C-alpha cells in the first residue's frame, strides 16, 4: 500500500508579555510564516511576572525555537537565559530570545529594527543625533545608533535622572559622545543636527494629537526625522517634518524590521518585510 510521510510537529515561537492582548506582533509574524510556507507558529502568551521563570522553563521543555519578550519582562528574563548578544548586554534588556544548540541567548532587536529602517535613508556613521526620550525604547535606539558610529547624541528628556542614565550608558559603553538636555521648555533643534528621533511615547494611539514640545520651524530640510511610534504611523511630528521638507521615517518600519530580524534569528529565512508591513498597516488603519 502506498503511503505518504507527514510531519505534524511545527516549530514554535511566541511572545511573553503582560498585558498581551493589544500586541499585534503575532499577526505580523504569522503573515510572514504563511507567505513563506513555513510550518512555524507564533503564540502570543500573557505571562505574569511571577510566572516568567515557569514560562521560560516551559519554552525550553517544548523546545521552542525562541520567543520575544515585551513589557514587563525585558530585564527580568535575563537571569533565565544562557547568554546575551552584544547590544542586549550593553542595554541590559532583551526583547528576542534565540535557541542556539541547547542554549537560549538573549538579543535586542528593537534598536536594530530602528537602524535597519533608518539605514534605508541615511547611514548614521559620523552623524549628529538629537533623540527625544530616555525610556527602554530610547535606550535601545541610542545604543544601536552609537554602535553604528553616530558621532554625537543629544538626549532630550523631561526627567533628568532617566536622561542622565542613558547619557552615562552611551558615554561609558560606546564610542559616541552623548549629552543631556533637560526638556523643561520648548526645544529648538540645533541647526547642525543630521538626525532627529522621537523615542518618547508622545503621539501613540489614542493620544494621536499630542505633540512634542519643540519649535517645528527649527527642523531643516537637511535633517532626517524618525518617529518610533508605530500607531498611527503618520504622527504630527512626521507631518511637521514633511512640511519643513525633511525626509521622514515612521515607526512601522522599526516594528517590521525588528520582526524580520527576529524571524531570521529563529528560522534562518529572510522574510519579506512588505508582507509584514501590509499586515500591520491594515490593522492600524482598519
Ligand atoms: P517608557 O515608558 O520606558 O519611556 C517613555 C519616554 O517617553 C520617557 O522618556 C518619557 O519621559 C517620555 N514621555 C512620555 N510622555 C511624555 C511627555 N508628555 N512629554 C515628554 N516626554 C514624555 O516607554 P518605552 O521607551 O518602552 O516606549 C516608548 C514608545 O516607543 C512607546 O510608545 C512604544 O509604542 C514605542 N516603541 C516602538 C517600537 C517600534 O517597533 N516601533 C518598539 C518599542 C517601543 P520621562 O522619562 O520624562 O517620563
Question: Topology of this structure?
Answer:
Elements (H helix, E strand, L loop, with lengths): L10 E7 L7 H11 L4 E7 L5 H10 L4 E4 L13 E2 L1 H6 L4 E5 L2 E5 L2 H10 L8 E5 L3 H12 L4 E6 L2 H14 L3 E6 L12 E4 L25 E4 L8 H8 L3 E3 L1 H17 L5 H13 L1
Parallel strand pairs: 1-2, 1-3, 4-6, 7-8, 7-10, 8-9, 10-11, 11-12
Antiparallel strand pairs: 3-5, 5-6
Helix pairs in contact: 1-9, 4-5, 4-8, 8-9
The CATH superfamily of the largest domain turns out to be NAD(P)-binding Rossmann-like Domain
How many structural domains can be distinguished in the coordinates?
2
Bound molecules: NADPH dihydro-nicotinamide-adenine-dinucleotide phosphate
CATH class of the largest domain: Alpha Beta
Named CATH architecture of the largest domain: 3-Layer(aba) Sandwich
Which value, in Å, is the CA radius of gyration?
20 Å
Strand tally, please? 12
Q: Mean pLDDT, as a whole number?
A: 96
* SSE string: EHEHEEHEEHEHEHEEEHEHH
Shape: globular
Compute the separation of the termini in Å.
51 Å
**Backbone structural class:** alpha/beta
Helix share, percent: 25-40%
Question: What low-confidence regions span 5 or more consecutive residues with pLDDT below 50?
Answer: none
Biggest sheet statistics: 6 strands, mixed
Amino acid at each position: 500500500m502506498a503511503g505518504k510521510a507527514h510531519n505534524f510537529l511545527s516549530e514554535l515561537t511566541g511572545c511573553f508579555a503582560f498585558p498581551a492582548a493589544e500586541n499585534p506582533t503575532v499577526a505580523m509574524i504569522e503573515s510572514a510564516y504563511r507567505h513563506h510556507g513555513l510550518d512555524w507558529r507564533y503564540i502570543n502568551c500573557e505571562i505574569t511576572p511571577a510566572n516568567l521563570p515557569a514560562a521560560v522553563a516551559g519554552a525550553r521543555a517544548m523546545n521552542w525555537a525562541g520567543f520575544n519578550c515585551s513589557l514587563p519582562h525585558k530585564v527580568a528574563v535575563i537571569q533565565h537565559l544562557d547568554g546575551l548578544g552584544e547590544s542586549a548586554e550593553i542595554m541590559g534588556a532583551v526583547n528576542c530570545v534565540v535557541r542556539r544548540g541547547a542554549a537560549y541567548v538573549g538579543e535586542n532587536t528593537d534598536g536594530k529594527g530602528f537602524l535597519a529602517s533608518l539605514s534605508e535613508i541615511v547611514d548614521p556613521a559620523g552623524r549628529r543625533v538629537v533623540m527625544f526620550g530616555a525610556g527602554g525604547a530610547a535606550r535601545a535606539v541610542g545604543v544601536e545608533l552609537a554602535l553604528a558610529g553616530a558621532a554625537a547624541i543629544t538626549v532630550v528628556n523631561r526627567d533628568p535622572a532617566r536622561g542622565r542614565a542613558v547619557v552615562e550608558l552611551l558615554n561609558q559603553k560606546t564610542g559616541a559622545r552623548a549629552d543631556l538636555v533637560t526638556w523643561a521648555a520648548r526645544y529648538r533643534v540645533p541647526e547642525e543636527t543630521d538626525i532627529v528621533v522621537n523615542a518618547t511615547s508622545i503621539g501613540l494611539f489614542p493620544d494621536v494629537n499630542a505633540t512634542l514640545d519643540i519649535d517645528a520651524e527649527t527642523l531643516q530640510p537637511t535633517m532626517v526625522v524618525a518617529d518610533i511610534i508605530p500607531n498611527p504611523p503618520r504622527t504630527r511630528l512626521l507631518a511637521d517634518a514633511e512640511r519643513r521638507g525633511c525626509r521622514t521615517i515612521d515607526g512601522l518600519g522599526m516594528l517590521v524590521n525588528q520582526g524580520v530580524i527576529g524571524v531570521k534569528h529563529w528560522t534562518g529565512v529572510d522574510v519579506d518585510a512588505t508582507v509584514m508591513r501590509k499586515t500591520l498597516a491594515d490593522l492600524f488603519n482598519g
